[in-house]
Design brief:
- The chain has about 375 residues and is of the alpha/beta class.
- The protein folds into two domains: about 200 residues, Periplasmic binding protein-like II (D-Maltodextrin-Binding Protein, domain 2); about 150 residues, Periplasmic binding protein-like II (D-Maltodextrin-Binding Protein, domain 2, 3-Layer(aba) Sandwich).
- It is built from 17 helices and 16 strands.
- Strands 3, 4, 5, 6, 9, 10, 11, 12, 13, 14, 15 and 16 form a twelve-stranded mixed beta sheet that branches. Strands 1-2 form a two-stranded antiparallel sheet.
- Strand 1 and strand 2 form a beta hairpin.
- The longest helix is centred in the middle third of the chain and has 18 residues.
- The radius of gyration is 20 Å and the shape is globular.
């Protein structure tokens, strides 16, 4: 769940995706040779995940306007929401679908006019109407990047029983105490409830006594068993490479990067189901830049060129259908998603809890994490 989710999700080996692309950018567009925005114009300000603030992800915007936007890097959507509520002026935000409603209910998000996006017609239909993209019948997010959340595990370090019966239950199995790592997120409680037989459609709405019971039954065990609750994908990747961690909640890029290093790792298809997250761009009403700049930035992110960069560089999927046609076939194959349309039908798409439920789950998770300190 992206949810804080990717403080450095763009990890590539021991160098973060952000570092690598920043260095690569030195050999790309020469910004000094391009026309600059006028001094009087307000520069577009974007709230973004670390690693996505490099030109390769919005190249057509840089080509058109001569410079990149200003960026404010956040560790998670709740962090970004608090910053904007406190008065930070931002024009565009990069949330995931389950958190868009938080910005809408706070009256900070603006409806997107898709007629102003040249690439909208090529966005997967399933994503155009997905929860979080549409809020009360209005397009409030333009979907861009997506991927899986499942269990990455060392095939040489887990037992045959797990390989034959892949399950999220590994996080609650004392046999693997101190050898697993969960994302620093309340999703651990919900996953525990799913291991206990509750479908995700019910688990994501957990509150009250049921939430308290799930936290006690599953959350405490999962926190205790985790070697660490990770926030940095590069740290997780290194721990799995060394064998310190043998199984972890992970995104596609961790598996792809470890495989490139020759580490025997695979991506599980847990019997309880695996998740598909997707994120995108949302317009905010707190910024000062010309709205046309925001639309140019969003459209750049939706382009097949950006999708090609995303697929080949990180192993994540992209919302533009044409991205999969443009990307290197070997990189598409490495994702393990040869039919993205069918994949979206079979995966569990993260859903949006109400503000009240999310606030309560955040509180309970904060109390659980204290057990690790």
């Amino acid at each position: 769940m992206k949810r804080i989710q990717f403080i450095d999700r763009m990890a590539q080996g021991k160098m973060s995706r952000r570092q690598m692309l920043s260095q690569a950018g030195a050999f790309g567009v020469g910004l000094l040779s391009l026309p600059k925005l006028s001094a009087a114009a307000e520069v577009l300000t974007c709230m973004e995940w670390g690693g996505y603030d490099v030109a390769e992800y919005f190249q057509s915007y840089v080509d058109k306007h001569g410079a990149a936007p200003n960026f404010s890097i956040f560790s998670g959507e709740e962090d970004a929401l608090a910053k904007v509520r406190a008065g930070f002026a931002a024009d565009v935000m990069h949330p995931c679908n389950y958190s868009v409603g938080r910005f809408v209910s706070a009256k900070l998000a603006v409806e997107i006019d898709t007629s102003k996006l040249s690439n909208w017609k090529d966005i997967f239909p399933a994503l155009q109407t997905a929860d979080g993209v549409l809020v009360d019948g209005k397009v409030m997010m333009a979907p861009a990047d997506w991927g899986n959340s499942s269990i990455a595990y060392r095939t040489d370090l887990v037992d045959d029983d797990f390989k034959k019966n892949e399950s999220w239950g590994i996080f609650f199995d004392d046999k693997y105490a101190g050898k697993v790592s969960m994302l620093d997120n309340e999703l651990l409680i919900l996953i525990g409830a799913m291991v206990g037989g509750m479908p995700y459609d019910e688990a994501y709405k957990l509150t009250g006594a049921a939430l308290t019971e799930a936290a006690k039954t599953w959350g405490e065990k999962g926190v205790k068993n985790s070697r660490f609750l990770w926030t940095d994908a590069s740290e997780l990747q290194q721990a799995m490479a060394s064998g310190e961690v043998v199984a972890a909640y992970a995104w596609n890029d961790v598996v792809k990067n470890l495989t490139r290093e020759g580490i025997p790792v695979t991506y599980a298809k847990p019997k309880e189901g695996y998740f598909t997250w997707f994120c995108g761009l949302t317009l905010l009403n707190t910024g000062k830049a010309d709205p046309a700049l925001a639309y140019d930035f969003i459209d750049a992110w939706l382009s097949p060129e950006t999708g090609k960069t995303l697929i080949e560089g990180s192993g994540y999927g992209h919302a533009n259908i044409k991205s999969f046609e443009a990307a290197n076939p070997d990189d598409v194959k490495a994702m393990g998603i040869l039919d993205p349309v069918e994949h979206m039908k079979s995966a569990i798409l993260f859903k949006t809890p109400t503000d009240a439920v999310q606030n309560e789950q955040n509180k309970v998770w904060g109390e659980l994490k204290a057990l690790k300190q």
